[in-house]
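pinging the channel bc i need a second pair of eyes. not urgent but kinda urgent?? the chain im working w is below, pasted from the shared doc
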Amino acid sequence: MVNRLRRGLPRRSVLGGILVLERHMDSAYLSAFSALAGAMIGGVTTFLSSWTTQTAQIRSARLTEERSRRDDLYSKFLEETARLYSYAMSEDKINHDKLVNIFALRGRILLQSSPSTVEAADAIIKRLVSIYMKPNRTDEDLLRDLENTSDDLMVDFAKVCRAELRLLN
């Protein structure tokens, strides 16, 4: 029997009338398999950890870039709105050349922003065109408009933009 074990042959025994073949595994094999399994588990864990971290960093960078791009777009739209509001207060006729920039910015907003932001931008443009179509406004009219902030479309647009940018964080 000792010869069988040394050569790695199965040992025979009878257990409850059933012939049972037993093999004894060398402890060196068990150690080697354990080491390989541990290395594989460690490698997979390291890979998954790195992949998860890198994916989160890429997503964060993408969101930061998107937020910055939209912030610039909304700022340009507000600047153009202020410029056109000034022209609309002092001119009787619509100068279509001056409206080109705001329509281009509106198109970019339409591509990149939520429907509520697009609606707020459209409301500003409609308001500007209606101001253009009215007779020239006096300084008193301007002062009255500045005091009545409930009707300020730029404030409404800024609030909608702020809420959208907050969602990108």
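so The chain has a mean pLDDT of 83. and Helices lie at 2-6, 27-90, 96-112, 115-133, 139-147, 153-167. — does that match what u expected or am i reading it wrong
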